[in-house]
Design brief:
By secondary structure, this protein is mainly α. Helix content is about 75%, strand content about 0%. The protein has helices at about 10-30, 35-55, 70-90, 95, 100-120, 125-145, 150-180, 185-190, 195-215, 225-230, 235-240, 240-255, 265-285, 290-310, 320-345, 355-360, 360-375, 380-395, 400-425, 435-455, 455-465, and strands spanning about 60-65, 70. It has a two-stranded antiparallel sheet with strand order 1-2.
């Protein structure tokens, strides 16, 4: 019998209900009271966090015909996504507050966040496709939300590539269902064990194409810099963070369960994708003067490091805990870096940050902490995540990938220092830029949390099963 247990999906239900009620409220509330929808969204996220933490110690379970897994990976994704949404709601305080479409903005955030969580918990190909769509369609609208020329162009590029790779993913699902005889992961794994290697490889690559698009990994990464530069900064912060969380966990679950018994060397395939992604991201970031494009390529390289841990799935007990720890650290640190960008909306280039420490000392300090955190400098959370991910990969026999990742990490210091340098020295820029108070507070908070998570990394690994 199908295990229909709605309480197991209470955090997801809270997001969905908040989105529906928020849309209805926004239709009736006057413009100056649209903030109530943001308050509703924040309350739903806070309630979802409480429910997740309370239920964390329970046993892993597969619900609704074993199509959805509620386990450590899903719970960790819930926590990271919900915290990320709360931070983005904070970033949106000044630019969105009081606008005509404030409610629609918040509803789109909630729906995209729900799609990311569903991606992470999917234990069935059909649910995976549904999660992909839910995590994609709201983002297309968010990318062009401002209705200006750069945002419209970014949304169009985003949509076209998403539609192409979405169709590719659906074709892969059909192939895997045809040769495996099932869509549920465990049953599919049994079917793929004796299926044609060529058919399995074609289907798996097609499915991964869609998930790599969501993660912003090579070779499906071309949309990331254009969308990050064209969309509004708060939207770019969300798009480059939240979807990646669900996508990376979905990739891990896909290769660790249905592909585990398949006669395909998926570990080598993921390792090569990781190597190409981190290297291309770092090389492209070297030559960027626009801060948003620099952060865009930085996020691409970070996905490459995350995939190093995915490549170790099934061959190291530390693989999943390390990936989850890294995701948490990355989400907080990346959102913090974008918070600085949101705090200075008219500072578009590295030169515009010249002398920032003279005008906004603590914002400059936060920027330094967050950028060094993205490098992986101790004692930040990304450092702990990278260290554990590299350890897991080394245990899995991927020493060459660990060496390449270490070289890329050292190389990344260069382009982060190109941003830090002007901010902490030199004369002030010609005009003092406007500052967004909500974004400044978010930058302070994320910088502190990034360091705190790094200090508590050992305890967090224990909770994550490491």
């Amino acid at each position: 019998m199908m295990d229909e247990n709605p309480l197991a999906l209470l955090p997801e239900i809270l997001l969905a209900v908040a989105a529906v009620i928020g849309l209805l409220l926004g239709s009736y509330l006057p413009k100056h009271r649209q903030w109530l929808v943001r308050l509703l969204a924040a309350a739903a996220c806070a309630a979802g966090l409480v429910v997740t933490v309370v239920a964390w110690s329970g046993e892993d379970m597969a619900v609704f015909g074993e199509t959805y897994m509620v386990d450590v990976a899903t719970n960790a994704t819930r926590v990271v996504v919900l915290v990320a949404v709360l931070l983005v709601l904070g970033l949106a305080g000044d630019p969105v507050r009081g606008t005509m479409r404030e409610s629609e903005f918040v509803v789109l955030l909630l729906l995209a966040a729900l799609g990311s969580v569903l991606l992470a918990g999917s234990n069935d190909l059909m649910l995976l496709a549904s999660g992909y769509l839910l995590a994609s369609i709201p983002l297309y609208a968010l990318a062009g939300f401002a209705k200006d020329a750069p945002g419209t162009e970014a949304a169009l590029k985003f949509y076209l590539m998403g539609a192409l790779l979405g169709v590719t993913m659906l074709a892969g699902l059909v192939v895997l269902f045809g040769v495996g005889g099932a869509t549920q992961y465990t049953a599919l794994s049994d079917g793929l064990a004796s299926a044609s290697r060529v058919a399995v490889a074609v289907g798996a690559i097609a499915v991964l194409a869609g998930l790599l698009f969501k993660a912003g990994a090579a070779p499906a990464h071309f949309w990331v810099p254009d969308v990050t530069e064209g969309a509004k900064p708060v939207v770019a912060a969300f798009i480059t963070t939240v979807p990646k969380i669900g996508a990376v966990v979905a990739i891990y679950r896909f290769v660790a369960v249905p592909l585990a018994a398949a006669r395909v060397d998926w570990a080598l395939m993921i390792a090569i994708i990781a190597a190409v992604t981190m290297t291309l991201g770092n090389l492209a970031a070297f030559f960027q003067d626009n801060v948003r494009r620099l952060l865009a390529y930085s996020t691409i390289s970070q996905v490459g490091y995350l995939l190093v841990g995915v490549a170790a799935a099934g061959r190291s007990d530390l693989a999943l805990p390390s990936v989850l720890l890294y995701l948490g650290g990355y989400a907080v640190t990346n959102l913090g870096a974008f918070a600085v960008v949101c705090a200075l909306p008219h500072a578009a280039t590295l030169a515009d940050y010249r002398g920032l420490v003279r005008r906004h000392r603590w914002l400059a300090v936060s920027l330094v902490v967050l950028l060094l955190g993205l490098v992986g400098t101790p004692p930040t959370a990304v450092f702990a995540g990278k260290l554990t991910v590299f350890t897991a990969a080394f245990d899995a026999g991927l020493g060459w990938l660990v060496v390449l990742a270490a070289v890329n990490t050292v190389a990344s210091v260069f382009y982060y220092l190109r941003w830090i340098g002007p901010a902490v020295r030199g004369e002030e820029a010609s005009a003092a830029p406007e500052v967004s108070r909500w974004a400044v507070r978010t930058a302070y908070a994320t910088a502190a949390v990034s360091v705190l998570l790094g200090v508590l990394a050992g305890s967090l690994l224990g909770v994550l099963g490491g």
